[in-house]
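2024-03-11 09:14:02 DEBUG pipeline.ingest accepted 1 chain
2024-03-11 09:14:02 DEBUG pipeline.ingest length=363
2024-03-11 09:14:03 DEBUG pipeline.predict start
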Amino acid sequence: MLSLERKIDLSLFETGKVAVGVSGGADSLALVLVLAELLGKKRIVALTVDHGLRKESLKEANYVAQLMNEYGIEHHILTWKGKKPTQGIEEAARIARYNLIYEWCKKNDVNTLCVAHHLLDQAETFFIRLHRGSGLTGLCGMGAVGAWKDLRIVRPLLDIHPQKLREYLQQRNIRWVEDPSNQSDDFLRCRIRKFLPILEEKTGISMQRIADTMKVLTKSRDFIRAQVETFIAKYARFWDEVGVCISLKALRESHEELVYQVLNDLLKKISGKDYTPRADDVERLVANLTQPNNENFSGATLSECELFVGQHKLWIVREVRSKKKMPKAVWEAFVKENSHYSHFDLPYKLRVALVKNKMPIVF
């Protein structure tokens, strides 16, 4: 067996069929072929998203289809339809790609998506998140197992240098697609990719050293993560998925780092966003909220959530933008249908968020 096959951790894979995102680039082609060898062709389905952003994209998708057919691997092309944004195109394309794959997997009872993020991607992610001002959690980078909504995401190549993937294909005389956007200075990731070899040459800081440091940070994150989960379980109460309240006293008596991580976690859960807020924004919130004898916290809006104090609690509620005040009769009708809420004196903003979540009406 080649070293690439030996480096794949098969314990990452549960039973059942595995979808693999295959763009036609060297990384994803090597991944789908090695998984077909390790797991068996019948367990693998290759999914290629045609974003329609370049005139060559359909031709490239068809090349992947032809190659998968030659290797006896099931393959489907998913097309991003509709008008494309003119700004933030990289992020929009990523979201569209994952959503298209997610929808296909849900319709076809596939619970695992395998993606080809590797050692270079991990090092790039470190600097991208450093640029965004991420805290400990962000600087840990991507995990071997993650999720997109309730679709399991597996990344078995995080410890593998991309050159190994190219060598794997070269040994089989398989050509791959080079996406010209991967060299464009319009994207931060591409600029960082060009910077990393210079960093290693001038300082000796290699991709591997960066990845090893991220693993050390991950151990610290996992310990803090356990403390955060214990704290939330003890002191927080969730109101469906649109709001949470947490003991203000407990927050103010806790270490600032724990408070930071708790607020980060709660803001991500209530906002429903993929990313946590910027670290410096949360740090300012923590400093404002935890000042000794500070009873004048006037509230804040962060990550499309409203934060305010009341009833000796900090409330975090998904932001609802409405110029009209919710009539009392609307809440009464809501409580009639959801009688368990009648026992609580809930803040108005939470009432609005609950109503909007369950009864999408206009008021």
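2024-03-11 09:14:41 DEBUG pipeline.report The longest helix spans residues 207-235.
2024-03-11 09:14:41 DEBUG pipeline.predict end
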